[in-house]
Structure formats: structure tokens, C-alpha cells
Amino acid sequence: MSKMDRRDFLKTTAAVAAASAAGLSVPSELQAAASNGEAGWQWDKAVCRFCGTGCGIMVATKDDKIVAVKGDPKAPVNRGINCIKGYFNAKIMYGADRLTEPLLRVNDKGEFDKNGKFRPVSWKRAFDEMEKQFKKYYNELGPTGVAIFGSGQYTIQEGYVASKLMKAGFRSNNIDPNARHCMASAVVGFYQTFGIDEPAGCYDDIEITDTVITWGANMAEMHPVLWARVSDAKLSNPDKYTIVNLTTFSNRTSNLADMEIIFRPNTDLAIMNYIGREIVKRNAIDWDFVNKHTIFATGTVDTGYGMRTPSKAKALGYSSKEMQTIQKEASKKVTKEEAVALSAIGKWKEGEEMKMTKRAGKAPFWHWQITFDDFKKAVEPYTLEYVVSVAKGDPEESDESFANKLQKLANLYIEKNRKVVSFWTMGFNQHVRGSWINELVYMVHMLLGKQSLPGSGAFSLTGQPSACGTAREVGTFAHRLPADMLVANPKHRKISEKLWKIPHGTLNGKVGSHFVKIMRDMEEGKIKFAWAQVNNPWQNTANANHWVKMARTMDNFIVVSEVYPGVSARVADLILPVAMIYEKWGAYGNAERRTQHWRQQVTPPGQAMPDIWTMFEFAKRFKLKEVWKAWPKQKLPSVLKAARRMGYNENDTLFDVLFNRREYHKKYPWPDRIAKNPNTGRMHKNTEAAGDGREIYDGDGKLFKGYGFFVHKALWEEYRKFGVGHGHDLASFDTYHKVRGLRWPVINGKETKWRFNVEYDPIARKHAKKGEKFAFYGPLLKTIKIGDLKGPKKEKGKVHLANKAKIFFRPFMVHPEDPKYDNDGYKFWLCTGRVLEHWHSGTMTMRVPELYRAMPEALCYMNPKDAKELGLKDGDLAVVESRRGKVKARVETRGRNRPPRGLVYVPWFDEKVLINKVCLDATCPMSKETDYKKAAVKVYKA
């Protein structure tokens, strides 16, 4: 054994780990070899850094380095296996160009200069400049003049601190996570339909169901561990278990599917209405479920596309080409296709001008109850013939073939005893009608009574590791507070103020700027200080040319907390080096409502510090009298008198009032026994609580020795008070460190698998009437007006929908840049997304040699016939050009992604192929989520 080389050792330990995960016996000599090779290692459970699947991993450390990662065989999500990215969780931390000290743009005199070069500075110098710039713009513009770009990759505690600092401290709601880019439409769909966020089902549905239908969800690459479970279920029962992949281009998910349906972008709305029509026509409605638990609803149509106001865009100098699309934000000509889709509403005919009169404020959200007869009338135009004519996505497929597939799809949903799960991700969410299509998938499931049942239900898959736990549950969105509460709701603000122990009236009741609007506000000079955390906004935001120019040429100050010098770091004025996932304590919440915690495993490198530390140190720079005073422009009153009555002094800092409270020190002292490693008994480090042995000088220039209490535990226990008794119940901090996650709501120590179902959900049992099987108890948007397809009728009044969900009608509409209607040569659809090997903007995974070699650059996937027609072949450099910008990418016609004619696919992980310069920043008017899946482009040889 002692002669075993490193390669053989790694192969041996991997084999032993894999065999153990699979429940296979392992020869004693191999077990001994693996054990000997692991001498001195300390193993501990943790969570994968990447997607929202929430895989459990085991992390091994030795000499303060992570030396191995493997799937956690006890983790119920992944059951001991990882995807290719998951196996490299350690290597993302050890890139050669890791940022390890603060960097500030300075001139030759050492003074801050926006045109200067980055130079290393101390933490104190960094915070001095940050404070100076923040206060300059904060005092000039008020609380709405500053912003934080948050993240679905925050730990739960980080997101909680950021939201509390911004909303309770700075009295601004201008904090929004990059989850706005990926999950906001799903959130609105949940709110509108159920009155509460996040899926009713869980991953157990994969094995229980008979049918998996994916809508714009390439699970094979985006959620590979879940796809492994789907694959296992399919191969175990190939005759009964059926998979359908609905997509705009062929992908790896199609390889296992029984049927692939390629549809034209944006027409998923038409397909869903066709299924609804078939359910009605075949008398397949589960009337017992529908009558007891639902009502029918519809809403406004003329809502625009979430683009800039045309007059504002023109004043800002947007080009004439850009204006061709932007003008549709104000009005558009109704197409022949749309005239049919909208015919039951009776307002718009072909060729008429549709003025977007409901695009501002709350108008896109307006909805009202209608009758079943109205609903039936609304879906009637969506005949098979009509939907084939608008939705067929592959021009080389026959109408007959496409029609046959749609009929089979409807049959699968409608089959009486067939269990069906609908999965979706960005294909639904990144959509100019993303909230609508989310509502429509519930429409289909609820008409059939196939919702909130084991093996049956509509299931939104999350993109980021804690987009659910941090962005949604914590409420780091511009409109939210923790546990589904809203900043615009006075009762919710009062509850939050009480739990945060701040004066009544502190919180700002005006919804802040969403992610894209923060960029637009900066371009208009309305926001001049921005702090990006766990996020790469200048690579991940559509129409990037505008935002890069704004960052480098306008009067503003941009701080980026980063681990590597990505695009956003390079356009910043100040870069703060921060700790990565296993260099700090934390928690994530995954797509099935599972909350998981981990301990700090290793020390951050150099001067890098956790994000919580950076926010705490910055909070020390602000006295109450500077932030809780009156702000007339924002109509915020002074709360200093009320603060004094609560025992505060106007010279107290935000750090002391929000984060360094006496009760935290008393209730959550450090050290804590939960920090003992269960295998070795050694104490895990805690940088924030007690320092970590490095010589770190804090924002005051003093040697940092820790805050003296268990920061993460104190934050957790305070945060979970928001959800207890409100359907968001979470377990204690210590509990999560003893289990492999729990799915909320956690009631009496037990997790909930299927929400709203009285058999499995104790909260549903509490709300349901005697004998009823379901209770859709979400409280939001449950009192609505009553009307018909044209609008609400004042004389009909309102209805309160206690414990009921809504079945929506939403029409199909053409995308504002559909190439079918383009007369300027932009004849291709552009679709963007990810690939298996890389995570988001590639900032981490492109630094892993194995992943880089596997996929070193973003390719332009296109149909071979299109390529031939354009004189392009595999490997040629092509230009992909939109009305906003252009990039160059190498052509690939035989790869994993196989577009139909007229569509190209370019992933966004490669900053050298910065495809977001090309993308359109149109958003769903309700969710404000960007539609990265659709833009009109030209493609030609470079």
C-alpha cells in the first residue's frame, strides 16, 4: 500500500466512495488502502456550491486545506453522487488569481481616481473610501440613491444581513438578487396562484410519478443529479414511465425522452392553452377538486415588455436600431396570430394598435375572478390547427407530426390514473410573459386535480444554490421582507420592525428598484453607489454594453465583493476580497424547500474575509442620526425620537443596533458545542466569532479578534422567528447541523413533503374544512375583484378566496423581437443558457483546469443547414449581432445542442464571448425577470 502512487490512490478512494454510495461491498484491502491514504483527514458534511438541486457533499480537510470532496451517501437529494461540477467544489477555491487583498483605483498620489489603476490597500483604507463615497451620494440623493446587487448565492445569513442593513439601516429597498434573473417569474406565479411562494411537491415525486414533462428545462445538463434520478426511474420501468421534453432546440434531455416537442419561442403559452381546451372539450375536469379548491381568473393584457420607456431611451441616446424594439413598449400592431389568441377578449383585432396602458406600477398584476364559461370561451380559439400553425418550432417537421405530438402530450396529462410532474426552469422564467406561463402550468394541473399529490404537480426547479433559501425566503428582493412579507404592506413592515427592534416607521414602504432597473437608474444618475455581492452583474445583465459604459464613464462609485477578477470586478472602483463557501459558516435553501447548513472548514486566503464581516464593518461607519433622520424626498419621517424611547442613542452605530445586540452575546456565546466535528471532536473555526489566527486588521485599523458571539447562530435564530406559525416554519440552528436538511414547513420537528395536502401538511389540516383534502392557505392576493374577460365589473364587487387557488387564463402573444416579423435582416432567434461544465459567468469553474479543458469557450450552436447557407463550418468564427451589440464565437453544428433552422444557442459562461452585449433587456412586466431566451440576431462569418 505504501508504494501506491497518487493516481492509484485517487482511483482507489474514488472507487471505495462510489461503491459505498451504491451500497456495494468493498474488499477489505481496498478499504484499508483508502483509510491509510486518508490519514489526518477530517471529513464533514456540507452543501454543493452550485445549482439549486442542493446536493450534499462530504469535504475532507488537512493542514487547513480542502484535500477531497465526494458525494454524501447520507444526503437524500443526491444519495452519494455528484455531477461533474460538484466533484470540483474544492478546486474553485484555489485558482492562481484568487483575490486576497482590497484593491482601489488610485492615481500616482494614492488618492482615489475613477480613471486610476487598481492598487492594494488596507481594509481600513478600503472602508474609509467606501464610507466617503457612500455618504456623498446618500446625502445627495437620499436612501434611493444607493443600491446592493444581491445574490441567490448568498448564504441565508449573508442575505439576511444584507437585507436588514439596507432596509432597516439605510432605509432603502434598492437591494435585489441575481435570482431576479432566474426565479422571479416562478415567484410571481406562486404568489398569484397560491398566495405563497415555492413548490408544493418535492424530489420524491421523481420516483413516484409515471410521467415527467420538462418545459424549457434541460435537466440533463442544468440539474444532472436530478436527471440521474429521472433516468434511473425510467430505466427501472421503461414501459410505464414516460418523459416528454418541450424545448426550442434539441438538447441532452431529449436523448432519454420518449418524445421531443420543439416549439417556436414564446408559444408555450399557446400550447398550454391548447391543453386547457382539450381538458374542457373531453370533460376531463376534476370538478370536485376545482369546485372546492379553486376559482377561475384572468388579468390585464396590454402590459408592455418591461423595456425602457421609449421617450427615456431616446433621451439617453439609444440608437435607432434599439428604438425599433423599444417602441413596442408603448404600443404595437396586433398580428394575425395574436388576433386569434385574443379574440375571446373582444378588444383587439388584426392590424389594430395595442397601446400598453397597463405597463406601469401595479397594473400588470391586476387580475379578477371570471366564470368557468368565460374560461371556456377564452381557450376555445386554441384549436389544434391554430396552435400547430403558431407553435411548431422546427420548420422541417411536418404539421401532421407536430399535431400528433401535441395530441399525445394532452393525452398524457389527461389520462385519468396517470401521475404527471411538470418541471421547468429558465425556459418558463426568462420570458417576457414568464409569470403568465408559470400560472398556466398550474392551470393544467389544477383542472385535472393533479396538484399537491405525491407524483403529481407542477414543480419549478431553481437555478442557484440558495435562490429559494436566501433570495425568496429571506426576502432579499426589492419588494420583499422575510417569510413572504412585502415592503409595501404596512402590517408586514410593522411585524418586521418589531422583530428587528427598530422604531415603527423606519422601513420604507416604497418598493425598490429591481435588478435591471438598478442598472437603468444608474444610467440615469438616480443611483450613484452600488455594491455587488456574490454576483457578477456586469456580465450577467442583458444589454451589457450600456451598463459597462455607465460604470466606467459616469459619476458613481461601484464596490464589488469578489474572489476572482471577473468582468464586474474589472469595471469596479473598489474590489473587496471575500471568503468562499467552505471558508465560512452558512446555510442554503434548495428547490424542494430543503434547508441545509454547514460549518466553516478552512481559513480564507490572504486578507479575504466573509461577506458578513464586510457588512458588519461597514455598518460601524454609520450613526443613527445619519440614517434614521427625516428624508423628505422619500417621504420618510425621522424616527430618532422613537429610537431614544427604545433606549437607543442617536450616536449609536448601525452595527450596534442591528448586529451587535446584547442578547446575541448572552444567548449565543462562542465557543459552541455544535462546532465540534462529529468525527474527530476538533472545533471548527469561526472567523466572525473569534478570528481565525490570521493577522487581519479591521475597518478601524485594529487587530480583529472576532465579534465575541456566534454570529451565524444569532442571525439564524432571529431570522426564523419571521416564519414560525406562518407556513414558513424552520428548525433550530443546532437541528440542521445534525441532519441532512429539512423541507419546510418544519412542524414539531417534522418536515413537510407535500404542501397544501392535508394528509402530509399539518398547516393544511389546520386550515381545511372537515372532509376536505386540500387547503391552499397562502394569504397573499386572496381578495380580488369579479368581472369577465374584458375586465373587472365594479357592480360585482370582490371575493375573498380563503384556502383557494386560482386557475388562470392568459393568452399567447408574439415576442417583441420575433424574427418572423423582422424586416431588417435579424432573421435568427438567439437563445442563451448554461452548459454542464460551467456555472453561471464561469468566474469559478473556468479556473478549474479539468472543466476548462472540457469546455474552454462558448460556442455558437447552430443548424448545419443554416451554417452551410451562410458559408460557415464547424470551428469557423462567426459574428452574432443584434440591435444592441455583437460578439464572435466559433460555430458548432454537431454538438450536444442541436437547434432547428432559424435559431442559434450561445451559452453565457465565457466573458470572452460576452453574449449579454447582444441580449435584449426586455423583462416580464410582472416579475421583472429578463428574457434571455429570445432576441433577434444576424449571423455571419467573421
Commentary on this structure:
The chain is of the alpha/beta class. It has a seven-stranded mixed sheet, with helices on both faces. Strands 11, 14, 23, 24, 25 and 26 form a six-stranded mixed sheet that branches. A hairpin with a 4-residue loop joins strand 29 (877-881) and strand 30. Helix 10 packs parallel to helix 19.
Could you give a short description of this structure?
With 942 residues, the chain is α/β, with parallel strands linked by helices. It contains 36 helices and 32 strands.
Strand order in space, largest sheet: 5-4-19-18-17-6-7
Rg calculated over all Cα atoms: 27 Å
Distance between the termini: 56 Å
- Provide a count of the helices: 36
User: How does the helix and strand content classify structurally?
Assistant: alpha/beta
Question: Helicity, in percent?
Answer: 25-40%
Number of strands: 32
Q: How is the secondary structure organized here?
A:
Layout: H1 6-21, H2 28-37, E1 42-47, E2 56-62, E3 65-71, E4 103-106, E5 117-120, H3 123-141, E6 146-150, H4 156-169, E7 175-177, H5 184-194, H6 205-208, E8 211-215, H7 219-222, H8 224-236, E9 242-247, H9 252-256, E10 259-262, H10 268-281, H11 287-293, E11 294-299, H12 310-315, H13 320-326, E12 331-333, H14 336-341, E13 353-355, E14 367-370, H15 372-379, H16 384-391, H17 399-414, E15 420-424, H18 426-429, H19 434-447, E16 457-460, H20 467-473, H21 490-500, H22 515-523, E17 529-533, H23 537-540, H24 544-553, E18 557-562, H25 567-571, E19 574-577, E20 586-589, E21 594-598, H26 611-619, H27 624-627, H28 640-645, H29 654-659, H30 662-667, H31 687-690, H32 711-719, H33 733-736, E22 742-743, H34 762-767, E23 783-788, E24 791-792, E25 798-800, E26 805-808, E27 828-833, H35 849-854, E28 859-862, H36 864-869, E29 877-881, E30 886-892, E31 903-907, E32 935-941
Parallel strand pairs: 6-7, 6-17, 8-9, 8-15, 9-10, 11-26, 14-23, 15-16, 17-18, 18-19, 27-31, 28-30
Antiparallel strand pairs: 1-2, 2-3, 4-5, 4-19, 11-14, 12-13, 20-21, 21-22, 23-24, 23-25, 27-32, 28-31, 29-30, 29-32
Helix pairs in contact: 1-2, 4-26, 4-32, 5-19, 10-16, 10-17, 10-19, 16-17, 22-24
